[in-house]
Amino acid sequence: MHAGESYSDIGAGHGGESPVVRTGFAELDNLIGGLYAGDLVLVESRPGVGKTRFAAEVALSAIRSDVSVCFFSLDRQKDQIEELLCSAVTGIPMAQVRWERQNDTRSMALDYAEAYLGNANLRIFDETGLGVPEIRSMALQDLLSEPRLIKNRIVIVDHLQLVSGHFWDRGRTRDQYATIMCNLKALALELGASLLVTSQLDRRSMRHWLDRRYPQSEFPWTVVCRQLADTSLILDRSLDADEAKVEGRPDVGLAKIIVTKKRCGSTDEVPLAFRADPPEFTSICTQGSDKPFTGDSGLARVVLQVVASHYGVSADDLLSHNESWRISEPQGVAMYLCRTCGDVPFASVGRIFDRDHSFAMHKYSVVEKRMLKDALFRTKVMELKVEINALLKFADSAR
């Protein structure tokens, strides 16, 4: 093969599709460049921080981009992962999702979520005792069953300590973990997929976590796993209010992703917002982020125009700090639509309206909860969303 032919294949090797899977967290994607085909990505955290929920957020981001997702859950049943994903799509607490599914009293939001996930390029495997050969076989079988999914895909394994059927213990050697990581890397290359694997750090006393930028586990195999991964991330947040009071720990409602390794890239910390019920991680864009969202940008301008016209107020009214009901409701709807129509981070939504991210999250939550209870209000918001998307599509086609 000639060199020219090899270079030409770079742009066409994926059928015109980008080999990068976006995580759904804007600042993290800007830092690491997304998840590349063939990359092995390690996500670590202490128990209870939210590894599985983070993996679910990445899966939903991939689904929105029409990327094939194979989710191997080695410690939860398929129904639990489905409930987690439905909760992430609808914003309904997991306990309520489980109750509705068990008692056949499904809300419209849950029906929509299940239909959405049912039509997505998503496969969930919950068999226990799987090793890398079994994961490979099942992933390849799924790949061959639907050739249309070949263009781009991500495999998620939750979690590392349960691969090969060995439950977490101190008896597994560093070499055994190295072998598993090497085999997972080979699988990512063979599938041409991004492979994300979660891993559990030990629950150490808090003093070991202070005065360290990169909290370490006492187990030697964690260092080996990070060395063999292409990208290594630590997901961190305070588990309770007492921990949040300790100097250096994230406040309640905040979290961070520590990029401890990025092959051919830089490392840094990425701040996130965290909501406990239902659990959700969301981006917080800093003031200096790339292409910050402003009130004069396209999506915000369209949202303000459509919402203001519908409610009989002005765009300036929506951007004001007027707390009257006449302004409060359309302002909340506008914030909700900025978030849902453009997947805009809460901090950026807040800046559009000269507020902080917590105010935007509150307004979003109020609108979301009212939509679940009030069918007429839900229909109104959905109609506005359809109109906004149509205007944005028309604007894109006119360029």
Can you characterise this structure?
By secondary structure, the protein is of the alpha/beta class. Helix content is 49%, strand content 16%. The strands form 2 sheets. Strands 5-4-6-7-3-8-9-10-11 form a 9-stranded mixed beta sheet, with helices on both faces. Strands 1-2 form a two-stranded antiparallel sheet. A hairpin with a 6-residue loop joins β9 (254-262) and β10. The radius of gyration is 22 Å and the shape is globular. The two termini are 39 Å apart. The relative contact order is 0.12. Residues 1-16, 210-217 and 285-296 have low confidence and may be disordered.
Question: Helix and strand layout, with pairings?
Answer:
Blueprint: H1 3-12, E1 20-21, H2 26-32, E2 35-36, E3 40-45, H3 51-64, E4 68-73, H4 78-90, H5 94-103, H6 108-118, E5 122-125, H7 132-145, E6 153-158, H8 174-191, E7 194-200, H9 221-228, E8 231-237, H10 241-244, E9 254-262, E10 269-276, E11 279-283, H11 298-311, H12 315-319, H13 325-342, H14 346-352, H15 357-373, H16 375-398
Parallel strand pairs: 3-7, 3-8, 4-5, 4-6, 6-7
Antiparallel strand pairs: 1-2, 8-9, 9-10, 10-11
Helix pairs in contact: 3-4, 4-6, 7-8, 8-9, 11-13, 11-16, 13-15, 13-16, 14-15, 15-16
